[in-house]
Amino acid sequence: IKIAVLLSGGGTNLQSLIDAIELGKIPGQISVIISNKKEAFGLKRGEKHGIETMVLDKNTYGCKEKRDKVLVETLLEKKIDLIVLAGYLAILSSNVIEKYKNRIINIHPSLIPSFCGDGYYGEKVHQAVLQRGVKVTGATVHFVNEITDGGPIILQETVAVAIDDDVKTLQEKVLEIEHKILPLAVKLFAEDRLEVVENRVKIH
Ligand code: GRF
Prior knowledge:
Blueprint: E1 2-7, H1 12-22, E2 29-35, H2 41-48, E3 52-55, H3 58-61, H4 64-77, E4 82-85, H5 94-99, E5 104-108, H6 123-132, E6 136-143, E7 153-160, H7 167-190, E8 194-197, E9 200-203
Parallel strand pairs: 1-2, 1-4, 2-3, 4-5
Antiparallel strand pairs: 5-6, 6-7, 8-9
Residues 7, 9-13, 42, 86-87, 107-109, 122, 175, 178 line the site of 5-O-phosphono-beta-D-ribofuranosylamine.
Domain Formyl transferase N-terminal: 2-186
Binding site for (6R)-10-formyltetrahydrofolate: 67, 106
Organism: Natronincola ferrireducens
């Protein structure tokens, strides 16, 4: 399958996908890496592996809608089968979500539905986890629908929150899980083993 990865930051999740593909674990290839930030280090990671990269910054296109129109055109022209959001901090417009129903996967650094939705991204998630004093957190891979972080959940994995954890140590623990479950979810999708039944995902 042909994969497009959208990101805005460092791209360690992208790196975990690149590594899994290069180890032959996923029957697919990353055709393009698209960022809304020209300085995203994830773009450099892709370039190092000879993967095409693009910057679609809403300022260049004047507004989100125009940018997303170019995004959809690019995805369709490249015959992309799966979009992976790996730390993509722009909200996808509804026409992208409609065209790619149950073919957009997102990774979120908490156990959805906890600590997700508007305002919960990056370190803010781990801050909220520490503030609430939960004993377990983790990561979630889910399909993207029009509700932010509201789509069918594909995989989740937990990690214990230690009393001496801070945002940095917690983020590190959760990222380790993200780097496991994201490639696994993409592999399952590529092997056509995911079936969405109402808002639940069956793994065959
Ligand atoms: C990860 O924590 C991911 O869960 C969230 O954004 C972060 C991306 O990190 N969506 P990286 O750019 O993949 O290192």
